[in-house]
Amino acid sequence: xxxxxxxxxxxxxxxxxxxxxxxxxxxxxxxxxxxxxxxxxxxxxxxxxxxxxxxxxxxxxxxxxxxxxxxxxxxxxxxxxxxxxxxxxxxxxxxxxxxxxxxxxxxxxxxxxxxxxxxxxxxxxxxxxxxxxxxxxxxxxxxxxxxxxxxxxxxxxxxxxxxxxxxxxxxxxxxxxxxx
Length: 180
Prior knowledge:
By secondary structure, the protein is an alpha+beta fold. The protein has five helices and seven strands. The protein has a four-stranded antiparallel beta sheet with strand order 1-2-3-4. A three-stranded antiparallel beta sheet has the order 5-6-7. Helix 1 packs antiparallel against helix 3 (64-84). The longest helix has 27 residues, at 153-179. It is elongated, with a radius of gyration of 23 Å. It starts with 22 loop residues before the first strand and ends with a helix.
């Protein structure tokens, strides 16, 4: 009989992680957030496909849709990079929002879970219900953090509520240990 070995899962890290900080989950915006990129992919292709349809005898014009597709892919790739590298990281201590700004810039916002007052979410009607996206609003003393077009906001909301509750319970436990 073979002995089963316990395989240790590698601990997931992220840039800026503190010692003893545990990563709970990572989420990003819904793909619908890059709909402008999809439009920019299709419009040059569609527009440059018209001349070969009108002048069908000129074979060189059939290269125009290929050029339109390449231009569209270039424009789409910019929006894809902005979407892909914008992430929200939730640890047992904080929420970290990393927003990609252009090809080389990024904004980082951190919010301690113990400072969160209230979390709410909104699904914007029929399209939000069908495609599964919505808005999450995180309220603190200093202001609101609004995350638009989040994929499955109800599930993210529940996970965030659990993380905040655990962080508050952990902070309360630390407070009781220091006062005793």
